[in-house]
Each structure stands twice: as C-alpha cells, then as structure tokens.
Amino acid sequence: MLELAIILVLGLVTGILVGLLPGLPAYVGPLILFPFIQDMTVEQILTFWLACQIGSQYFGSVAAILLKVPGEASSIVFIEDLNKLTMNDRYDLVRQTAWGSTIGSLISLSLLLLVFYFGLSEHLIKLTNINTKLTVLSILAVTLIYFTKHRLISAGLFAVGLFFSEKSNQTLPNWVFDMQTYTSDITVFSLILGVMIIPEFLQETFAPIEKDPMDLRLDKQKTQSKLDIKSMLRGTWLGSLIGFIPGPSTILASVFTYNAQNKDDIKKRIISSEAANNSAAVTSLLPFLFIGLPITLSEMIVSDIMHTKFFIMPNDLTNGSIFNGVSIIEFCFIIVGIYTLLYHVLAQRFLGFYERLMELAYGKLSWIYLLLVVYLINIDTQFNPVYMPRYLIFMAMLTGLGMWMLKKRISALPLVFGFILGDVFAWTIFNFYRINFY
Amino acid sequence: MKFASMLVTAFALLVGAISTASADEKIKVMYIGVPQVGPSVVHAQNFAKQLKTPYTFISQKDCAASMDYLKDNTDVVYLLSSTNSMTQKKHGIDCTPKFAPSDIVYVADNYFHLCRKPGNKKDILRERFTIAGASVLPLMGIANDYNIQNGMSMIAVPVQSSDQVITSILNEDVDYGMIITTAADPQVAAGKLECPYTTNPKAENYVGKKFRLAMPDYKIRWLMAIKSGDPAVRSEITKTAQSKDYTDSLTKLGYVNIRNTNLDQSDIDRWNTWIDDNLKTYLK
Questions:
Q1: Which end of chain A lies in a sparser environment, N or C, as judged by fewer CB atoms within 10 Å?
Q2: Which positions in chain A touch B91 (Cβ < 8 Å)?
Q3: Are strands B128-134 and B176-180 parallel, antiparallel or unpaired?
Q4: B49 → closest Cβ in A38, A246, A430
C-alpha cells in the first residue's frame, strides 16, 4: 500500500510536469516507465499512466494559455487567439478551463461506469469504424480551413502538411518512403517550433509588440467571470463522442469542438475545446480498458508494457482483484476519479505560481525563450530519433516560412494539423476505398 | 550583435544538452527496423529486462540509422524480424547486418491466426470478403495467392498493427483478420474472436489443410544477434537467452521453434531464404 501511495504521488507530479512542460506529450508518461516495469505491479503501472494521461490534459492548457507555448498538441488550435485576449482574460480562462476539464472528465467517467455496469462496450466499438472516422476527419479539415482568413492558402498548407507527414502504411508506393528518408527528420514539434514558436520568439525579441503595463499587476486586477457551464457541456458531449476515434482523438476533439463554437467568442471556444479534450482523454480509455484495444499512442505503449508483464487485456482487468473484491478495472475508475479531483484543485492553485512566473518573465523574455527553444529541441530529439544536421536545416527552413507567414498574417495551423493528421488521413482514405469500392 | 550572441548561446546549450544525455551503460539493446512500437519492441524490451548487467535501449529512426549505429558501436545486441527485413528490402534497403553463425543468439517464429467475429457466417469460398492485416506483412500478395489458387474473392485491407486488425474485425470494418498469435489468443479466450484457421502446421486447423497456398506456414521469423568482442558481454547475452525464465517468457508470448544452442550457417541460410522466398512469392 505504501508503494502504491508513493506511485500515486509520483504519478501526480509527473502528470503535472508532462502537462506544464512544453514538448512533453502525454505518451511520455508511459515511456518513462520502461526502465522500471520489472519492479512495478500492474496496478502501479496503470496508476502512473492514468496520472500522466489526465494531468497532461489539465496542465497542458495552463502552459498554453499563460505562456502561449502549447504544453500539448490539442492546445495549438487556440494559441493565436490568445493574442486577442487581455492577461486578465487569460488568467480567468485558466480557471474556466480547469472547471471545463473537470466537468468533461467526470461526465466521461460516468459514461465509462454506465457502460461497464450495463455491459454496453460491445456496441460502442462500432463508433471506431472507418466511415465514422472518415466523416469526422473530413468535417475537421473543412472546418479548420473554413474558419481561417486565407482559405485557399490554408487549404494548400493543409495539403502540404498531409503530403509531408510521416506515413506508416507499408503498402504505399516506394517513392513515399524514399521521400521520407529525408522528411522524417521533420518532427511534429520541430514543425511547431519552426513555423510558430521561433518566429514569435524572434518577433518578440527584435520587434516587440508594446505591452499593456497593467498586464503585470494581475493581483490587483484579476476578476472572475461566471462559469460558462453551457460551453463546458457542449465540449463534453462532443469530446466524449470523438474520444472513440482511434488516433489523436484528444486533438480531434479539441479542434472539432473549437470550430463548432461561434467564432466571435474566443473564450467560449477555448473553454469548450478544453472540456472536449479532457472528456476525449477519458472516453478514449473505453476501448482499451473494456476490449483491450489501444486506440491512442499512449495506450499502445501501455499495451506493450502489459504484454511484457504477461497481463492479458482485457481479461485480467476484470478477473483480477486488488482488495475487498475491487477488480483492476474498477481500481482504474477510482484512480481516474481521484486524479481528476486532485488535478482540479492543483490546476487552480498553480495559478499563483504561474502568475509569478509570468511577472518574472517580463523583461527577460529573449533569454527565457531561448532556453525554452533549446530545451524543446533537446526533448524532441531525445524522444524522436533524427539526423541532427537535417533536423536543424529543416527547422531553419521552417522558421523562414514561419516568419514570412507571420508577416503576411497567414495562420500556420492548417499546415501543423495537416502534418499531425496526415498518417491517419492516408490510412483512412486508403482503407475506405479498399473496403467499399475495391 | 544580440542575434549572433543568442545564436551562439543556443548552439552551445544544445550541444551540451545532447552530449550529456548520452547513456554510459555497456550493453546496448536495439531493435533494427520500424516501427519502434509494437511486438518487435516488446520482444527486444523483454530480452533487455532479463539482463543482469546495466543496459541501454537504443531507438533509431529507421533501418539505415540502426545499421549506422551498429557499424560505429560495439557490445550491441540486436533483434531482427523477417517482416521488417523483407519490407525494407522491397524498398531497396538492406536491413540485415552481416553476421557470423557464432554471432547468433537465438532464432524463433511467430505464426498467425485467421480470425473473425463470432457469428460472422460469410461463405469465404463464394462471397467477396475483406481481410485486415498489419501493413508490414505482404498482405496483398497473400490475398492474391488465396484468390488465384482457390478461386476466392479476398480483399486485403492493410492496417497499422495486429491490435488494429482486431479493432477492424470487432467494429465490422472487415470480415476477417490475419493476426499474430500473441495478440489473437487472449481475444479468443475472452470469446471476442474465433479463429477457424492458423498458419501453424502443427495445429488441427492448419490453413494448409483447407487451401492451396504457396507459403501456407506463414510466420514472422525472429533472429537475435550480437556484435561484441568482449567475452564477458557475449557470455552474459548467451546465458540470458538460454535461461529458463527467458525462454518461458517467449513461449508465453506465443513464440515457437525457439533455438538458442548449436546455431550454425544453416540458420543464416534459412533466414535469408525465408526473406527471399517472401519477396519472390508475395512482393514481386
């Protein structure tokens, strides 16, 4: 029990760090576990993983909203909009999104309980089929492009992102893989760094935008608006549904819900997309915990870990009992509930810390950004093996492109999302054709 | 001036950060190939964790990078899978390092089941039907073989992994799936899938008894080898591979035909022939 308590705390801290520190996606959590799995029990592994899974969604948005550096990929969608909000609005937004995340997570957890106790999991698996997937991806692409200023250019950028993204379908023609020998040195994060973060950093350093001096006195001016429950619920139901889509479901949920909201109300869009993001993170657990099917990268890594522990999913989840007749799957539900409540409290407490960090940052931004960029490149290359010279050359080229786009006020988001979703798109279209028309 | 000083600082920090991140453990365990997740990596990790001395697990972006790493380093134990080697060879990349019989640590095989959702009554000899399989398999060639030799209408649907094959069967995207036994057996035990055929020739429902096929005993062949001149390292690797704990764990994960002693040139020949046969039969 003591060991489990220690893992609970370690998981909690790691979940916060994975969320807060930009560049660490949710799947880093289970990756950290690899050297220790031999000495850990299945319950300890699941506890640690669930902590990272939930924590990264909570705290990723905190880093994004306050520092404008996406702690997780699903926050990229609203990064540009944050320029239109005052510091006070952003501060309030952190509280609103924490509540949205909690409501989203708890409602999705209730859905898991309902499905578990009423034995409905067999029916829900149908939501993962190719037709649903293609429909959601198409709507996502169209809405993403439609809500930008330069629709034609955005469509082109999205297509370029799709084209250059790394493809894993080995049945595609040889030239795709010949090209990938070079282009796979562009990672998702190097793309984000190149076209978004570094150009902003350079603009901030060499042509700073005049700041509102009131920004620095948050203590005296912060006000709390009424909780926007309607946006939270809207995000929750969309996120709960999209969570079943295999692949980057939290990103899909975030982008889809963001674009489904009225584009003039930025705060509503962000609150609802964050609620969707968290509820998708919880509902995406359903196929894995109930049927043993990993549908996200993080779940695939945990599934691998479970194989090495000779733990058979999903059978052993319901057969095994930890204490007082509580099965391992029920233990997972309890852990999700506990972490949701803990992170809800901690996400609000952390605001003071971030506020101080922001105050500290002003005036020293160039060097802080520089350290941040170096840190991000280091983390990125640790988790994505690349040829360093090519990686840096690509990043320099992407930075040039990013600066040009910034100058012309062209959004880089379609390019980034095209790149993130390229592989899923390639698989989905290819298989949709083969299943229905071949 | 400010820009130049920041650029120099960034470069210095980056070089410092990357060089301090290098591991100093003696034995390096590496899976040669892509993807860097899934059964292949589980297999290599499973071996690594049985080692008694400190090790580091090496991930490389692709086959060429793995081969470069192997060329520049020693005390490396590496795992090869036939599926990856032949897929890479199809793309014109030789992903099998040159090794001597004494470098081989062990060889093993993994068969496949042909599974469907319970209740699926499709008559596969007469009706058009879809079958999913991991895209590292020569699935198009295999389906072609079934169709030509048995007059069937099998449509191959390649997906990312065996787990994804199971999802595609359960959500009714496809009628059948070709699934590695390690992934299929638990689903069969849970009653989620039924597997009327298998490629294991020792099984009752061996696919070769029902259909005419060029390679009915289709399997993934695994080969682990070592590059080291240090007798202590070689002994540690061999002892680990031959330990009961490790061979039991392989058996439990569905590996068969495990051979870890008296390996000779015929094992290398068998490996190369299997890959070439695959290429000639299914990937031509």
A1: N
A2: 174, 177-178
A3: parallel
A4: A38
List Cβ<8 Å contacts ≥24 apart for B150-153.
B150/B125, B150/B211, B150/B212, B151/B125, B152/B124, B152/B125, B153/B127, B153/B128, B153/B129
Phi, psi angles (nearest 5°) of residue A384? -125, 100
- The answer to whether B135 faces chain A, any CB pair under 8 Å, is yes
What is the DSSP secondary structure assignment for residue A213, as one 8-state letter? G
Question: Measuring CA to CA, which residue among A166, A195, A160, A184 is closest to residue A398?
Answer: A195
Residue burial B135-171, b: 16+ Cβ < 10 Å; e: rest: bbbbbbbbbbbbeeeeebebbbbbbbbbbbbbbbbbb
For residue A434, give the nearest of B3, B64, B157 by CB distance: B157
Here the tokens at position A376 are 């991000």
Measured distance CA(A368)–CA(A373) in Å, rounded: 9
Which of A137, A71, A72, A132 has the alpha carbon at shortest distance from A421? A137
Question: What is the C-alpha separation between A130 and B171, in angstroms, rounded?
Answer: 9
Contact map slice: B 33-72 vs A, CB within 8 A: 34-39, 41-42, 45-46, 49, 57, 59-62, 64-65
pLDDT tens, chain A, 438 aa long? 788 888 889 888 888 877 776 656 677 677 677 667 767 888 889 999 999 888 888 887 887 887 777 767 777 788 888 888 887 888 888 888 888 889 989 998 998 898 888 877 667 677 678 888 888 788 878 877 887 778 899 999 999 999 998 888 888 888 888 888 888 888 877 888 888 878 877 876 676 544 444 344 444 455 677 888 888 998 898 888 888 776 677 888 888 888 888 777 888 899 999 889 889 888 888 878 887 667 777 787 787 777 777 676 666 777 666 667 788 888 899 999 999 999 888 887 766 676 566 556 555 666 767 777 787 787 777 766 788 889 999 999 999 999 999 888 888 878 988 887 888 889 889 999 999 988
According to DSSP H, which parts of A121-197 are helical?
121-124, 130-146, 151-164, 174-183, 188-192
Three-state DSSP class for residue B23: coil
Looking at residue A138, its amino acid is S
Please, what is the end-to-end C-alpha distance for chain A in angstroms?
56
Contact B44, B65 (CB under 8 A): no
Residue A248, preceding peptide bond in cis (omega within 30° of 0): no
Q: What are phi and psi of B118, to 5 degrees?
A: -55, 135
Q: What is the ipTM of this complex?
A: 0.82
The residue behind tokens 């449509």 is B155
Structural tokens at position B153: 């209408």
Interface test with B, best of A45, A132, A180, A304 (most B CBs within 10 A): A304
| Cβ atoms of residues A242 and A276 within 8 Å | yes
- The CA distance from B76 to A368, in Å, is 39
In DSSP terms, B179 is beta-bridged to B113
Rounded Cα distance between A269 and B129, Å, is 44
| Residues in CB range of B253: below 8 A, 6 or more apart | A307, A310, B42, B43, B46, B182
Contacts of B36 in chain A (CB under 8 A): 385
Q: What is the pTM of this model?
A: 0.74
